[in-house]
Design goal:
It contains 6 helices and 4 strands. By secondary structure, the chain is an alpha+beta fold. Strands 1-2-4-3 form a 4-stranded antiparallel beta sheet, with helices on both faces. The chain starts with 7 loop residues before the first helix and ends in a 26-residue tail after the last strand.
């Protein structure tokens, strides 16, 4: 992964006041397997540890509609019925197996104020990272679920408690035959979320 060190997309990612608050940890090989086992254990024991709140029930109106559309499409692509709790549990576990990807990146950040500006900086960095991967033919999936076990990730990777985990990104060359890769979610038209003022 050292080839990313000279990537201009990453090097010149913007940030508020040029603070560059990202602290990225990439796991592969034996360390990835160690972390996977620790995450699965924490998940099965109900030992979640979020640095930032998240409740899927907070979505409303069109935001909630899009979230439900994505969930329905995803599970249908895998052939898992709405009431199949065992199947859904298996799917949830795949997050902690990094969807069989050979690498996973964890995006940590320091805490300043209400964290909103810092999180937006991490979002810009993540988008640069995703575009860099795509330009090399590498598939990726940002995973909020990985950020729900921050203590576990910090412990395995030896990350300081003052660095907060926002989310993770699993990445590798995509399996184009995989059922989960058989669909692409649509987007609302630009006119629905952009207003022009003359």
């Amino acid at each position: 992964m050292s080839s990313f060190s000279g990537d201009k997309n990453l090097k010149y990612t913007p940030s508020n006041c040029n603070t560059q608050p990202w602290d990225v940890h990439i796991v592969s090989g034996a360390k990835k397997e160690e972390l996977s086992k620790a995450l699965i254990y924490a998940f099965e024991k109900g030992q979640s540890s979020l640095d930032f709140t998240f409740d899927i029930n907070d979505y409303f109106d069109r935001y909630a509609e899009r979230q439900k559309e994505q969930g329905k499409t995803y599970y249908e692509s895998l052939g898992i019925a709405r009431g199949d709790q065992e199947g859904r549990q298996r799917v949830a576990l795949r997050n902690f197996e990094f969807f069989n990807a050979p690498h996973a990146a964890f995006l940590f950040m320091p805490s300043f104020g209400d964290n909103v500006r810092v999180a937006s900086d991490i979002g810009m960095y993540a988008q640069s990272f995703l575009l860099s991967l795509t330009s090399r033919g590498i598939g990726s999936i940002p995973q909020t679920r990985l950020g729900m076990f921050a203590d576990t990730v910090r412990q395995v990777l030896g990350v300081s408690d003052d660095m907060k985990l926002l989310f993770g990104i699993s990445f590798g060359y995509p399996d184009k035959e995989a059922r989960a890769n058989s669909f692409r979610m649509g987007r609302d038209p630009i006119e629905s979320n952009v207003t022009f003022h003359d």
